[in-house]
Amino acid sequence: MSYMKLTASTLAIAALSATTAAARDNVQIAGSSTVLPYATIVAEAFGENFDFPTPVVEGGGSGAGRKKLCEGVGANTIDIANSSSRIKQSDIDACAAAGVTEIMEVRFGYDGIVFASDINGPAFELTPADVHAALAAKVVKDGALVDNTAKTWADVNPALPAQDILAFVPGTKHGTREVFDEKVLIDGCEANGTAAAHKAAGAEKVGKECMALRTDGVSVDIDGDYTETLARVDANKNGIGIFGLSFYQNNTDKLRVATMSGVVPSTESIASGEYPISRPLYFYVKNAHLGVIPGLKEYVTFFLSDDMAGPDGPLAAYGLVSDPELAATQAMVEAETPMGPLE
User: How far, in Å, CA of 321 to CA of 280, rounded?
Assistant: First the structure.
């Protein structure tokens, strides 16, 4: 059965790849380190169960994956970008400028952002307000904005352990960072009154001020994947790392997870909406490659199948919270419906 769509972009890729198709007989994917293990599970199962080569799945971060997707159309460009944050208008504009005019947005489930420390360390019961007060560059003291000099978590909140503040946060190219910025730093900044102080001080972009982190060594950006964050926590027992829920669940022998606003992170608390720091997971498909790159449509369909992404599938066993609207996404994939304008 052929899935080719005779659009101008499809004809363009056919022409571009006519001489290189034999060297490009597998699906190529790059992007989010959070989505990487899920995509790897699907790719390996796909290679074992279909008459297509196993897709090549690489990391690099959500932003980097979307940038690669938007490099153009042709066998020398990737087919899918994995992303733990939603595509941006700037990505869509870059894609369009490079001839990538139709993109299929595939939301396949949900994950949570968790704070975890050494398994033998003290328990942490955090709130976004606590995290912001510990890591923000500026905080409110005696009614005024001042440089943050808190040394221990107990300095921030006496109910927290008197442990030196040290946090390993995802670098700016990671989709996890966007969720951390929006659902922890900005929410915490508003909750502890710092946002109001920035506004009163005349800040033009309060959100940007709220997201500014300390530069005195207590907040450390991690540009690698979660394995690097885990290694940092292992080497610095006072450190707290930020991870995806699924990564934590696969390393419970090494990590102790913190509650957030009184809620223990779990697939159940995320599915119910109780856990406050969850996010949808996506991958983005270059429609022009459908019907041209062997196995691309079949891989996407397989990924979205109940057997893989459903609540009883292997992705759920790894920690994915299945999307309650999975059936609608399956229908969208079958119809190869490109995404519309961002809401």
Answer: 9
Which residue's structure tokens are 């904005």? 145
Query: What is the pLDDT averaged over residues 273-298?
Result: 94
DSSP string, 245-297: HHHHHT-TTTEEEPEETTB---HHHHHTT-SS-EEEEEEEEEGGGTTTSTTHH
Structural domains for the chain:
8-110+281-335 (3.40.190.10), 112-278 (3.40.190.10)
End-to-end, the C-alpha distance of the chain in Å comes to: 34
Token match 């992404």: residue?
309
Q: Is the dihedral of CA 146, 175, 111, 232 positive or negative?
A: negative
Q: How far apart are CA 179 and CA 278, in angstroms?
A: 8
Contact 35, 281 (CB under 8 A): yes
pLDDT above 90 covers a percentage of the chain that reads 80
pLDDT in tens, 210-264: 999 999 999 999 998 899 999 999 999 999 999 989 889 989 999 999 999 999 9
Query: In b/e form, how buried is each residue of 98-118, taking b as 16+ CB within 10 angstroms?
Result: ebbbbbbbbbbbbbbbbbbbb
In degrees, rounded to 5, the angle at the alpha carbon of residue 303 between the alpha carbons of residues 104 and 22 is 75
Quote the radius of gyration of the chain (alpha carbons, Å).
Answer: 22
297: left (phi over 0), alpha (psi -120 to 50) or beta: alpha
CB-count exposure of residue 15 (10 Å: 0-12, 13-18, 19+): exposed
